[in-house]
Every structure is written in C-alpha cells, then in structure tokens.
Design goal:
With 291 residues, the chain is of the alpha/beta class. It has helices spanning 2-6, 11-39, 42-68, 77-94, 100-107, 124-137, 147-150, 162-181, 195-205, 219-224, 230-236, 266-286; strands spanning 113-117, 142-146, 185-189, 210-216, 257-260. The longest helix is centred in the first third of the chain and has 29 residues, at 11-39.
Length: 291
C-alpha cells in the first residue's frame, strides 16, 4: 500500500525501486561473503549483511532520486522532454482532423461527384448503374444516389413543385458533398431540370470535384421508352408539372460529358464516361489531389 500510494504512480520511481532491490541483493550477497571471509564465521557475515541491506537500500533509493533530477551530463534532456510533450499534444489535436486527402490516400483514389442530368427515360439510371458497377469492380469506393433512395427517405417531405425540386437538388448536393468528403465517388442521377439548381449543386460540391453528365435524348424517344406510362399520364393531365411536358427542362450549356443515348448504346456510353473519369483522376493526381 505504501509503494502504491507514494511511488508506483510515477514510472521512473518504479524503475528506481526495481534497481534498488536488484542491486542491493547483489551488494548484500557480496557483503555476506566478505564478512564470512574476513571473520571466518558465516553467521557474522549474515548479520552484517542483514543490517546493511536495509540501510543501503534506503540510501541507494534517495541517491537515485537525487541524480534523476540532476542534468549533469544530460544537457538536452529537458529539451527532449518539452519536444516530446509538444509532439504528443500535436498528435492528439490532429487525430480528430482526418481530411479528404487522408481518406483519398487510404482509398488510393480521389473522391468526386458524377452528376447525371436528363429527361425521364433518357437513360440516366442505366448509365449511372453501369458506371457504379465498373467503379466497384475496379476496387473504387463509390455509391449511387437517385430518386429511389432519396425521395423515399430524407426528401420524402418534398413535393414536385419547382420549390420542392430545388430543395431536393440542394439536399442531394449536400449529401453528395459529405460522401465525397468521406472519400467516395458519388454517382448522382436526377432529372435536375433547372440550370440554376445544377449550378448551386456544383458550388456546394466544388467545381473541381463535380462532373456533369448530360444524357441528351429527344423527348419523343423518351416517351417511347416510358414503360411506367408517366409521359402518357402527364399529357392526360394526371401528373402535374412533369418535366418535358408541363414543366421545362433546361439543358446544360457546358456539360463535362454529353451522351446522346438515342444513338449510342449503354456499353459505349459507359466507356465514354469511364475514359473521361480516368483522365480527370490522372489530372487531379498530378495537381496533388492525393488519389
């Protein structure tokens, strides 16, 4: 209890106690042997050693503690101690600040957002799913966002009015940014019909990490592909404010990639996107994006 209360909390004290005991054992054996040799009586040697072990352990311990506080011969010890404390504080402070670059380094690829836009039925989801499968098969950490997993969850409170659509895209952009910050390549597939909303999304995510893919397809072709009958309902007035019919679609002026899905097949289009993406990632790596 005495050692636990007064000494053991200090690691240096533990070491000095251990050294005191082991050294004193060696010294006491030496004293006993010398006493025996000089007096010719082993009992005398044991008596001398018995008294000596107690007194010299106490003296040795305090001798060690005094020298521990003396810097003689150790001019840099205090400096090393301060540096160690400073480094420990820095490591502790930095341990809670894992940046996007750190995550990109761990993943061995950069993180960004691929934003698909186009009319309903243009082929956005098909291409987005194909790109996700390609990335995943190549060991890239990625995730796809679309109406199925956003509108039914976090954005289920929003309607399809212009205001509801604007807020939908804003929220999606914020989610995509967080996921990109976490080190993922995000594939977002939304009609996102208004230029202003797409520009806001680009600003939230960051232009350097935003790839806009315009899936361009004539309205009549989209209507022919409409297996859900949404365009038919829109023309009948059952669905209000439907993009392309009763609500406008504003095509991008300067999309990073334009896919003419009525002329090119999914395989060819996916390869076009993958080629652009690989080139983009190489450029970011050369610019120090840590991929």
């Amino acid at each position: 209890m005495f050692l636990e209360k007064f000494f053991i909390k200090d690691p240096s004290v533990k070491r000095h106690v251990a050294k005191t005991l082991t050294w004193r054992l060696v010294g006491t054996i030496d004293t006993i042997m010398l006493g025996w040799i000089i007096t010719g009586n082993p009992a005398t040697g044991l008596t001398i050693g018995g008294f000596e072990i107690i007194t010299k352990m106490i003296l040795y311990y305090f001798h060690e503690r005094i020298w521990f506080r003396v810097n003689l011969g150790l001019p840099n010890r205090e400096k090393r101690k301060k540096n160690k404390e400073a480094n420990t504080k820095n490591i502790s402070a930095q341990s809670f600040k894992i940046s996007r670059s750190h995550r990109n380094l761990q993943n061995h690829h950069t993180s960004l957002v691929i934003w698909f836009t186009g009319l309903s039925g243009s082929g956005k989801s098909t291409l987005a799913n194909g790109v996700e499968q390609k990335l995943f098969s190549n060991g890239i950490k990625c995730y796809a966002l679309d109406g199925d997993n956003v509108r039914l969850g976090i954005n289920k409170d929003l309607d399809f009015s212009d205001t509801g659509r604007k807020e939908n895209i804003r929220r999606v952009a914020e989610i995509a940014k967080l996921m990109a910050d976490a080190g993922l390549i995000v594939i977002a597939s939304f009609i996102s019909p208004f230029k202003e909303d797409r520009e806001i999304a680009k600003k939230i995510i960051g232009e350097d990490h935003f790839i806009e893919v315009f899936v361009d397809c004539p309205l009549e072709v989209c209507e022919q592909r409409d297996v859900k009958g949404l365009y038919k309902k829109a023309r009948q007035g059952t669905i209000k404010e439907f993009t392309g019919i009763s609500s406008p679609y504003e095509a991008p002026d300067h999309a990073n990639i334009t896919i003419h899905s009525n002329n090119a097949g999914p395989g060819e289009s996916i390869q076009q996107i993958m080629s652009y993406l690989e080139n983009k990632m190489q450029i970011m790596e050369q610019e120090g994006a840590h991929i």
